[in-house]
Specification:
The structure holds 2 protein chains of 2 kinds. Helix content of chain A is 71%, strand content 0%. Chain A is globular and about 75 Å long. By secondary structure, chain B is α+β, with helices and mostly antiparallel strands. Chain B has 2 domains: 223 residues, P-loop containing nucleotide triphosphate hydrolases (Rossmann fold, 3-Layer(aba) Sandwich); 127 residues, OB fold (Dihydrolipoamide Acetyltransferase, E2P), CATH 2.40.50. In chain B, strands 6-7-8-3-9-10 form a 6-stranded mixed β-sheet, with helices on both faces. The two termini of chain B are 37 Å apart. The chains are: A mainly alpha, B alpha+beta. Chains A and B meet through helix 11 and helix 12 of A and strand 6 of B.
C-alpha cells in the first residue's frame, strides 16, 4: 500500500516494462472501443443507420445537438427501463448472495477438505455448457406445457398451468441461475482463507454462533462478498439474452435497449450513449470498491 | 466432587477414527495452580486442552469445572478462556476491540468496558497500544494481547495452548517468568500445554506428562524431574542414563542389584516389592553422575567401570559420554567449577569409574515397549 504511494518506487521499479502487454491489451480491447463508443455517442443517426456528417461543428455544439442522445436517454420510457434493470440487478445480486453464502460456507468450511474440489466442481461444471443452451433449457422447464407445469398438473396441485415464462419472475430465475457461480467462487476464495481458530476464539470469548458469524465471519469475508456483488451485479445490469428469451416484450432491460439500438433500430449513436452511461455507472461502482479496499488494505479482485 | 478442584476430569477419551488421541484420562486440577500438560507432539495434550475448552466433544468421560458438569457445553457457556497457539487475534479489530470482544457477553456494562480493557492491557504492559491492529504488533505483543483478551473476562480457568511456541528463545524465558508471576498474582488456575520440559519445569506447580493419549506421570514439577515414574518420563525429562540390572536381594531397606556390566550396587528400597532375579532398570540423571579415577565401591558408593568416549565442552558444564562393559551408554554433566586446566582430567579413550549417590537412583521396572 505504502509502496504504491511512494513516488520513488515508480522510477526505480525494474518491472515497469513488463506491464506493457497488459496496457496493450487493455488499450486495444477496452480503452479504444470505449473511446469509439464515447465519440459516436455524440453523433446523429443518418439515413440507413449510418452516421450523419456534421457540417457546422460550432453550431452542432451550441445548439445542444451534441448531447441530444443523452437528453433522449432521460425520457421516462428509458428511465423506466434503467430503473427496471437496476432493480432486477439488485434483486438478483441480493438473492445470489443469500443463496451462495451458505453453499460457499459449506464447501470451504464445513465439508471435509478432500471433497472441496469435487463440490466446487459441481457448482461450476454446468457452466461449461453454452449459456444460450442453458437459458433455452429454462424455457422448456418454465413454459406452459413445460416440465414444471406438467408435473404440477399431473400431481393435481394446480388446475391450469401457471404463467411461469415471459415475466419478471422468469428473468430473475434466469439471471440468478447464470450468475450464481460468480458469487460462489469469490465467496469460497475468501471463506477458504478464513482462519478457523478465529471462530473458536470468538466462541471462547462468549459469542454465540450467530454473533460469531456477524462479528467475525462476515467482516473477514467482506472482500469476497464485495467481489461477488460486483461480479454478479455488473453483468446482470447489462444482461440482454436472458430477458430476451425468458422475459418477453414487457421486460425490456437496459441491455436489450442497447442491443435493439444497434441491431434493430440501427441508431448507433443512441445505442452508444446508453451503453456509455451503463459503462460509466459500472466504472463508478468499481472505483468506489477500489477506494474501499485500498483503505482496508485487502483486495481480492482489482 | 470436591470444591478445592478447579477442573475434574474422569475417564476422558477422544477417538479420531480408530485412534484414541486421549485415552481414559482422569485428573483433578487444583484451584489456583499452574498445571502443565507436557508431552511430545501427538501425545494428546492439545486435544485434552481443547476438550476442556469445549472445542472438541469427548467420545467418553466427563469434565467438570468449578464443580459443574460441562462435558457437553459449548465453549461460550464455559467459565474458561483460551490463549490460542497462534493467538487467534481478530485481524480486523484493534487491540482495544480485541480485548473488549467478549465483555458484552459477560454482561459488562458498555460504559465500563474501556476501563476493563485498560486494566487488562496494563496487566500485560501494553498500555498505549489500544488503537493498533494485530498486524502492527510483534509476536510477543500479540501474545500479550491474546492473554489480555482472555484475562479481561476473569475466567476461573485459563487454558494456554503452547502460547510461547512462536517466540524466540530469549523472549520466551522472560515471558515464562512473567506468566508465572501473573498467575500467582491473579490466583487463576492455569492449564498450560507445552512440549518443552524446561518450560514446564520453570512455570508449573504440577505437571502431567502425557504419551500416546495417556498420563504417564502426574506430580509436582520437581518430582517429575527427579523421580520419573516410567521410562518414557525419564527419557522425556532428559534422564537418559539407564542401567540394566537383576535383583539379587531386597531386604532390610536395601535393594541389592547385580549390574549387567558386572558388579553390585545397593540402592535404598522405596517400599516397592521385588522378586529375586527380577530384571529391572534404574536411571540416574546426568548431572547426578560423577566420574572418578578410582573404584569407590568399597566405600559404599556405586561405581561402574567405563571407557571415556567423548568429551564436549559446553561452557557452564562439560558433557562426558561414556560406555560400560555391557555396551550401555551414559551421559555425565559436570559443572565447570574447577579451573580450566584441571577440567580435562580424563582423556578420551581412557578409563574411569562412574559413581553416584545411591539415593539419586530411581528404579523403573521394564515395561512392555509399545511398538
Amino acid at each position: 500500500m505504502s509502496r504504491a504511494r511512494d513516488p520513488r518506487s515508480r522510477i526505480r521499479n525494474p518491472a515497469y516494462p513488463l506491464v506493457l502487454p497488459t496496457w496493450l491489451v487493455l488499450g486495444v480491447f477496452f480503452l479504444l472501443p470505449l473511446t469509439i463508443l464515447f465519440v459516436i455517442s455524440f453523433a446523429q443517426r443518418g439515413t440507413y443507420g449510418s452516421l450523419r456528417p456534421i457540417e457546422d461543428f460550432g453550431h452542432y455544439v451550441t445548439s445542444g445537438k451534441i448531447l441530444a442522445n443523452y437528453a433522449r436517454s432521460l425520457h421516462p420510457i428509458y428511465l423506466q427501463i434503467f430503473w427496471r434493470s437496476l432493480w432486477m440487478a439488485v434483486v438478483t445480486t441480493v438473492l445470489c448472495l443469500a443463496l451462495s453464502y451458505p453453499v460457499a460456507y459449506y464447501i470451504a468450511v464445513v465439508a471435509p477438505p478432500r471433497r472441496r474440489n469435487f463440490l466446487l466442481g459441481l457448482a461450476v461444471v454446468p457452466f461449461w455448457t453454452s449459456f444460450l443452451i442453458r437459458t433455452y433449457a429454462w424455457m422448456f422447464l418454465l413454459r406452459t406445457e413445460g416440465l414444471i407445469n406438467r408435473t404440477l398438473l399431473s400431481a393435481g396441485l394446480v388446475s391450469h398451468p401457471l404463467e411461469l415464462l415471459y415475466n419478471n419472475f422468469a428473468v430473475l430465475i434466469g439471471l440468478l441461475y447464470g450468475e450464481i457461480p460468480f458469487m460462489i467462487l469469490p465467496l469460497f476464495a475468501s471463506l477458504e482463507k478464513l482462519d478457523l481458530s478465529l471462530l473458536e476464539a470468538s466462541a471462547d470469548l462468549g459469542a454465540s454462533r450467530a454473533s460469531t458469524f456477524l462479528r467475525v465471519t462476515v467482516p473477514l469475508t467482506m472482500p469476497g462478498i464485495v467481489a461477488g456483488i460486483i461480479l454478479v451485479f455488473v453483468p446482470s445490469l447489462g444482461q440482454f439474452i436472458v430477458s430476451d428469451l425468458l422475459g418477453g416484450a414487457r421486460t425490456i432491460l437496459a441491455g436489450n435497449l442497447i442491443q435493439n439500438q444497434f441491431a434493430v433500430a440501427r441508431n448507433k449513436p443512441f445505442g452508444s450513449a446508453v451503453a456509455f452511461e451503463l459503462t460509466a455507472a459500472v466504472l463508478a461502482l468499481l472505483f468506489v470498491y477500489t477506494i474501499y479496499t485500498r483503505k482496508k488494505g485487502q483486495d481480492v479482485l482489482l | 466432587m470436591g470444591s478445592d478442584h478447579s477442573v475434574e476430569i474422569r475417564g476422558l477419551t477422544k477417538r479420531f477414527g480408530d485412534v484414541a488421541a486421549v485415552d481414559a484420562v482422569s485428573m483433578d486440577i487444583r484451584r489456583g495452580e499452574f498445571f502443565s500438560l507436557l508431552g511430545p507432539s501427538g501425545c494428546g495434550k492439545t486435544t485434552l486442552l481443547r476438550m476442556i475448552g469445549g472445542f472438541e466433544l469427548p467420545s467418553e468421560g466427563r469434565i467438570a469445572i468449578d464443580g459443574a458438569d460441562v462435558t457437553l457445553r459449548p465453549p461460550y457457556e464455559r467459565p474458561v478462556n483460551m490463549v490460542f497457539q497462534h493467538y487467534a487475534l481478530f485481524p480486523h479489530l484493534s487491540v482495544e476491540a480485541n480485548v473488549a470482544f467478549g465483555l458484552r457477553y459477560k454482561g459488562v456494562d458498555r460504559a465500563r468496558q474501556p476501563e476493563v480493557v485498560r486494566e487488562a492491557l496494563a496487566l500485560v504492559q501494553l498500555s498505549g497500544f489500544e488503537k493498533r491492529l494485530p498486524h502492527q504488533l510483534s509476536g510477543g505483543q500479540r501474545q500479550r494481547v491474546a492473554l489480555a483478551r482472555a484475562l479481561a473476562l476473569k475466567p476461573s480457568v485459563l487454558l494456554l495452548d503452547e502460547p510461547l511456541g512462536a517466540l524466540d528463545q530469549k523472549l520466551r524465558k522472560e515471558v515464562q517468568v512473567q506468566l508465572k508471576h501473573l498467575q500467582r498474582e491473579l490466583g487463576i488456575t492455569f492449564i498450560f500445554v507445552t512440549h518443552d520440559q524446561e518450560e514446564a519445569l520453570t512455570m508449573s506447580d504440577r505437571i502431567a506428562v502425557m504419551n500416546r493419549g495417556r498420563v504417564e506421570q502426574m506430580d509436582e514439577a520437581a518430582r517429575v524431574f527427579e523421580r520419573p515414574a516410567t521410562e518414557f518420563v525419564a527419557h522425556f525429562m532428559g534422564a537418559a542414563n539407564f542401567f540394566s540390572a537383576r535383583v539379587r536381594e531386597a531386604a532390610g531397606g536395601t535393594l541389592s542389584l547385580a549390574l549387567a556390566a558386572g558388579g553390585e550396587v545397593r540402592l535404598p528400597l522405596n517400599g516397592t516389592r521385588y522378586r529375586p532375579d527380577e530384571s529391572v532398570r534404574f536411571v540416574v540423571r546426568p548431572e547426578k553422575l560423577d566420574l572418578r579415577a578410582r573404584d569407590l565401591s568399597a566405600h559404599g558408593v556405586p561405581s561402574v567401570a567405563v571407557t571415556i568416549e567423548d568429551r564436549v565442552y559446553q561452557g557452564i558444564s562439560t558433557m562426558w559420554i561414556v560406555r560400560d562393559s555391557a555396551d550401555e551408554r551414559f551421559v555425565v554433566y559436570e559443572q565447570n567449577e574447577k579451573p580450566f586446566e584441571e577440567a580435562s582430567r580424563f582423556a578420551v579413550g581412557g578409563r574411569a569409574f562412574l559413581c553416584w549417590n545411591p539415593s539419586h537412583a530411581v528404579v523403573i521396572r521394564p515395561e512392555a515397549e509399545p511398538s
